[in-house]
Amino acid sequence: EETEETEETEDTGVVSAAASAEAAPGSTGADAGRPGRPFRIVAVTSCPTGIAHTYMAAESLENAGREEGVEVVVETQGSAGFTRLDPAVIAAADGVILAHDVAVREKDRFAGKPTVDTGVKAAINRPGELIGEVRAKAARGEVTSASPGATPVERGGESGEGYGTKLRKWLMSGVSYMVPFVAAGGLLIALGFAIGGYEINKAPSVMDHFVWTQADSWAALLFQIGGVAFAFLVPVLAGYIAYGMADRPGLVPGFVGGSIALTINAGFLGGLAAGLISGAVVLAIQRVPIPKALRGIMPVVVIPLVSAAVVGFLMFVVIGKPIASAQSGMTDWLNGLSGANAVLLGALLGLMMCFDLGGPVNKVAYTFATAGIAVASPSDSAMKIMAAVMAAGMVPPLAMALATTVRGRLFNAAERENGKAAWVLGASFISEGAIPFAAADPLRVIPSSMVGGAVTGALSMAFGATLRAPHGGIFVVPLIGNPLLYLVAVAAGVCVTTALVIVLKGLRKPVTGASAQGPGGGADPSSPTPGAKQAVAA
After folding, report:
1. How far apart are CA 430 and CA 396, in angstroms?
2. Which one from 17, 47, 303, 511 is the annotated catalytic residue?
3. Phi and psi (nearest 5°) for 523?
4. pLDDT at res. 49
5. Which of 171, 227, 501, 518 has its CA 20 to 30 A from that of 278?
């Protein structure tokens, strides 16, 4: 049976499926597989940055569903927001797949359905297995339940996740909401420096001194807007870590704690601590038995009041000074980096950026770099680290694009097509552009990418390239200190990775056929080309 097309309703922002609406509301796995219609699955995909993994996972699930004769409708909770699934589509679904590395928004919609809760990479690498798991749960009649007051933590516990996995998701939730502020603020500040020079940070407020015809006034305006955007980084980080743990009740203490971290100069370390403490405090309050008469005021008055007061006390009186001292020590260490130590740090960050291509290790390196430039006047060492991290992150997709161009016979048709998209993704500093290649051949692609990333990171630090903008790829080259040597560092890493991939792939029999089929005639694992194209669009 032909899969129904999904359409986006412009006025309501809801994804609907005409045939799904015909199904009886509230159908579950009990009537799955009844004669006359295929098994129906709704899915949600979401990654920390909401750019590439989110859309690749969605495309992978849809492709696997078509191969297995299963209807799959996906809600992508990306960086540009999300289009909600029609409630009728959810009601008619026989199962649910939640593939996410950050908290799923409005998760209660899927209660009462057989559900598989997993990471976004699982949906990219093994979508068929996830579909099989959902069908098996539906056959056994297993469903999830979530009470109206349940938190993301409590619901997530039903999936069997360990606290290490939960901690990673909470932290990535905060990072995902922080990244747009980093990008906007960093680019505005960098443009201000590019127009007005590095003395522009001493310009008076544009409220009192703005001349329409003077370039310095516009430079000061850009710089000061960027500074305001940067002032939100730590509160947003803390607020949305708490949100990932305790849903909306965590926002107030999280933002308050993050703002206190700024006040006491505890920086990003303080923001991380404030977010985790805020989420824990809210969860503790929610577990206290409350009389029915008071339940109505709990989310509006009691939880915000008590949680903000407790978090404020802990940040100001108990842990504020130690965290501020640790932040100061880390800053002094970074400022003192030079010579071989700086080169080694660049190589290490390059390895991390290329290890999992947008995954947790990659995000740790990126967050470390952005933390250094998230101040009005970052140190030279911090800007060197940011430059090295971005340069290394561009290497894997650019190298895969170059390899498919110069030695196409080593790649199948799907990989060669993905290579075309990888040019744009790599140039834009979207490391996820190399995921289709890494998924198909991880033992050759990932080590090669790590070596090239380490070379680029080390060279960038050795050349003294600096960068104030946290994103942008080659499109922010005019804002880079020592831009020519910076491009040399990127090119060197790309060439190293390309050469290694070609040599390692050349040790096996070349792919000569034009088909993108894998063993046994199935779809090759390297074929999420539409996902890569969606990442370009994103």
Report:
1. 9
2. 47
3. -65, 140
4. 65
5. 227
